[in-house]
Write a structure and sequence with these properties.
Layout (H helix, E strand, L loop, with lengths): L1 H24 L11 H6 L3 H23 L2 H4 L6 H12 L6 H21 L13 H20 L3 H41 L1 H23 L2 H22 L11 H19 L16
């Protein structure tokens, strides 16, 4: 229950941060795309800095969640970050969500429940053998390079989708590295081993890379293009890391049918929710007066 609670808190913080970051990144000219100047431009925007503050809160909550639960359980819960964010935004802006948005909320939450119930992730170790990280990081780097190369040859929503998937992969490997690093405290090694472990510093590098890719994805196109790839990519790739690195198990066989239905529900729900002006970090249109 602790891991689920902190995973939900992480989703709330990350979802709110994405909206604030999208609002800031959408104002950056295309000439800054995939350049460090993009971050320099964003650093001058208070809205973006507020989003970064929420990212830090999310990082702490995520560390607690990963320390107390399997990565294949914790990371998929983050698919609810967009529905939660829209509910918060509708309250802040005093604007009721349209019926279609409520359908999206139901699709995402229902898909998450169906997916976790069908996959039933269990077991696994808390740490990863150091040698096992070598092929995992090589494959991850190759996948990231492929996505970024493809993104540089495209524009607008296609680029946003590819970069969002690259960011999702980076966030997933960040979570895996963080879980491995935090577990060393629980093993009795103490904070000395934690701060001297290479996984901790690799987490920081991967996290910064993920943040950079996300800003470029948000700047390149609409939230409808980036959010589903980010949300589903993070969940599915994290499950892959959980199974291959931590030895966690998920149900297969005929269970794949409801699992695929769950993925479809989450995809449809994310697309519908991402169309909302609230998801783009903009005020909803004012009601007309007569």
């Amino acid at each position: 229950m602790i891991s689920v609670l902190f995973a939900v808190l992480t989703a709330i913080s990350n979802g709110s941060a994405s909206v604030l970051q999208r609002r800031a990144a959408s104002t950056v000219p295309d000439s800054h795309a995939l350049r460090l100047s993009l971050i320099g431009h964003l650093l001058r925007k208070p809205v973006w800095l507020a989003g970064i503050g929420l990212v830090m809160v999310a990082a702490v909550c995520q560390a607690v969640a990963l320390a107390t639960g399997p990565i294949a359980v914790v990371q998929p819960i983050f698919v609810i970050e967009l529905p939660i964010t829209l509910l918060i935004a509708s309250y802040v802006f005093r604007s009721a969500l349209p019926r279609t948005a409520w359908y999206g909320v139901a699709a995402v939450t229902g898909g998450l429940a169906l997916g976790l119930g069908s996959a039933a992730p269990t077991g696994g170790s808390q740490t990863v053998d150091g040698v096992s990280w070598i092929p995992a990081l090589i494959v991850t780097a190759a996948f990231e390079a492929l996505l970024i190369t493809a993104a540089r040859r495209t524009r607008h929503n296609t680029r946003a989708a590819l970069l969002a998937l690259a960011a999702a992969c980076a966030y997933a490997v960040t979570a895996a590295l963080l879980k491995d690093a935090v577990a060393r405290i629980e093993d009795g090694a103490g904070f000395g081993t934690f701060f001297s472990s290479w996984q901790l510093y690799a987490t920081a590098v991967a996290g910064i890379g993920a943040l950079f890719l996300l800003q470029n994805a948000l700047q390149a196109g609409s939230l409808v293009a980036s959010q589903p790839m980010l949300t589903l990519g993070d969940a599915l790739i994290s499950i892959t890391y959980g199974v291959t690195l931590f030895g966690e198990s998920v149900r297969t066989g005929w269970w794949l049918i409801p699992e695929l239905v769950a993925v479809a529900l989450i995809t449809v729900g994310c697309v519908e929710l991402a169309r909302s002006p609230l998801a783009s970090g903009t005020n909803p249109p004012k009601p007309r007066t007569h």
